[in-house]
Backbone:
């Protein structure tokens, strides 16, 4: 079943992906067909089955609380699309 | 210098150590091949010939002293998903089109430590999302193989399609790949090369651009399993900068090559007889069974009952993780930016312009399955089914050592035969996804050609951290298949 325009627009808003009005219908159809296809998981009995979060192969570990990296301001800023001195710039957030 | 294109990674290593060839001439021969053939194949996004020549010269100096590591002077290609210090790293996306990492991924650091020479960064599906290398913002990659009597451009598989094509065409002696649901194994099968997806946690994910973090795993792609074994030994190892890296010793994988399969129990899962699978793939699978049996293995019929749920489970889990991982591309700290009147408008314009169609579709589905009201129905349920898929494998391994299946349900298809339905495209990964979901290691080896002359692969799936048994069993298939075919487009073939 196709996802309606309102749903697609809401999801796109959550994902912060701007959509052209012309894209919404086609995306709703494609997403709907993928969602219909994954619905087959409803046949599986998952009573008392724990969710698998990861493979569980790596043991949680502790390390000494000390700085292992840092003082690399220029490296960190080197890919900034726009900056002023040591700051990233963004559009004005507070009016 | 056509003899330069007959080396495997192992034989080149031996010739370098014996000083029969120099690293500079080996590197130059491969750079020339790239120059000649890659305008067409498009397997590289970024070429680094100057750095390669400097590294090759340094390798010769080391070799002249009788020193050097396992890969000193060996020309490799790096999937453009691994961050390389000072060298543009794009993930084949417009949004990272000018991203130059100020640090090196652990996997590539390990290869450099052992003396490898990098020739450049290899093409892939955008953010490793695809099975045909058709979603790259830098254009599709052409498979160097051709169907008999046809010049149709075939896909190399994906997402590590540039790695696969470059190895198959002889442009590099080996390449790094990453595999989230089959992205090493399926392109390896489509291009007649070998590839290993190691156990989850075997290779560090540090510095590898994330797609689905609970599944992403780096691995080697090369002409044969000996070459893959040499590369894996260098790439693998514990890394404290990856919280899912497992602290277990790295064995000598190359030594496992000739162990043989006598007494090994090989499982054949009945669920992999997919409806509609071409008869020649069924036949090749049977051939693989016969080869292993003839070498002394015992064949055991097994069941992996949740196999059919692998793909839908994968598409929920992987896309949910992707939507979260790709949230970082917001146009503020790095990557391309499209300005907007507000911060939200900037985000939306940046992501609309920076991501391709398939990536957007996947982020949107991932966002949907994680959103309030749908989380339990989709995401949590998928994680529970994932537990059942893993249990299938763990109970099978109480009875068998390794599992044999086809790698993909078809050989390489033509670029213009791409299915229009996204679900049809996802079916390419039907045989590779379950092992990814379980976190167990798996590999693909070339085992034959189909009636049209296009390569087909067989997949072996193993126990956690038992890559050695996989390599040993895979080598038995390699030897029996004696796959020595070369693609139509190859560095060693004069045009």
Residues:
């Amino acid at each position: 079943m196709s996802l309606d325009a309102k749903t697609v627009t809401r999801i796109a808003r959550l994902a912060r992906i701007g959509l052209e009005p012309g894209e919404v219908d086609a995306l709703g159809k494609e997403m709907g067909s993928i969602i219909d296809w994954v619905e087959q998981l409803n046949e599986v009995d998952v009573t008392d089955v724990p969710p698998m979060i990861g493979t569980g192969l790596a043991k949680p570990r502790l390390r000494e609380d000390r700085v292992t990296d840092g003082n690399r301001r220029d490296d960190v800023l080197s890919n900034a699309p726009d900056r002023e001195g040591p700051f990233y710039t963004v559009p004005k957030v507070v009016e | 210098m056509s003899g330069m294109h007959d080396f495997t990674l192992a034989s080149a290593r031996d010739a370098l150590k014996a000083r029969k060839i120099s690293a500079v001439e080996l590197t130059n021969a491969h750079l020339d091949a790239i120059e000649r053939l890659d305008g067409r194949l498009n397997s590289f996004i970024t070429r680094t010939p100057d750095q390669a020549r400097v590294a090759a010269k340094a390798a010769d100096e080391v070799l002249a002293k009788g020193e050097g590591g396992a890969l000193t002077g060996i020309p490799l290609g790096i999937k453009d998903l691994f961050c390389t210090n000072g060298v543009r790293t794009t993930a084949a996306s417009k949004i990272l089109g000018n991203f130059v990492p100020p640090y090196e991924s652990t996997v590539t650091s390990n290869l450099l430590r052992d003396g490898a020479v990098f020739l450049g960064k290899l093409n892939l599906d955008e953010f490793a999302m695809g099975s045909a290398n058709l979603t790259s913002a830098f254009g599709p990659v052409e498979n160097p193989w051709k169907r008999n009597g046809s010049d149709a451009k075939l896909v190399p598989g994906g997402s590590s399609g540039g790695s696969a094509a470059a190895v198959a065409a002889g442009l590099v002696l080996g390449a790094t790949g990453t595999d989230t649901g089959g992205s090493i194994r399926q392109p390896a099968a489509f291009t007649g090369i070998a590839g290993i997806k190691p156990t989850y946690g075997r290779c560090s994910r540090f510095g590898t651009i994330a797609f689905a973090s609970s599944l992403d795993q780096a691995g080697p792609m090369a002409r044969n399993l000996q070459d893959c074994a040499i590369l894996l030994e260098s790439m693998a190892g514990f890394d404290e900068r990856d919280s899912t890296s497992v602290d277990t010793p790295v064995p000598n994988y190359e030594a496992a090559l000739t162990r043989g399969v006598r007494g090994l129990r090989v499982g054949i899962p009945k669920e992999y007889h997919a409806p509609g699978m071409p008869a020649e793939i069924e036949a090749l699978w049977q051939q693989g069974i016969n080869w292993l049996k003839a070498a002394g293995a015992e064949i055991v019929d097994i069941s992996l009952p949740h196999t059919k749920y692998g793909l839908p489970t994968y598409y929920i889990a992987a896309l949910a993780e992707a939507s979260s991982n790709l949230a970082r591309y917001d146009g503020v700290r790095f990557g391309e930016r499209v300005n907007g009147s507000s911060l939200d408008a900037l985000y939306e314009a940046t992501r609309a312009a920076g991501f391709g169609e398939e990536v957007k579709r996947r982020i949107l589905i991932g966002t949907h399955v994680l959103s309030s009201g749908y989380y339990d129905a989709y995401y949590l349920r998928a994680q529970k089914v994932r537990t059942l898929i893993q249990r299938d494998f763990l109970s099978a391994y109480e009875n068998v050592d390794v599992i044999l299946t086809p790698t993909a349900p078809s050989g390489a298809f033509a670029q213009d035969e791409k299915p229009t339905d996204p679900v049809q495209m996802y079916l390419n990964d039907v045989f590779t996804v379950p092992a990814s979901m379980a976190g167990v290691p798996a590999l693909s080896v070339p085992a034959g050609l189909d009636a049209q002359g296009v390569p087909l692969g067989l997949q072996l799936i193993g126990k956690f951290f038992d890559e050695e048994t996989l390599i040993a069993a895979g080598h038995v298939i390699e030897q029996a298949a004696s796959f020595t075919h070369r693609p139509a487009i190859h560095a060693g073939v004069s045009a």
Remarks:
- The CA atoms of residues 2 and 16 of chain A lie 21 Å apart.
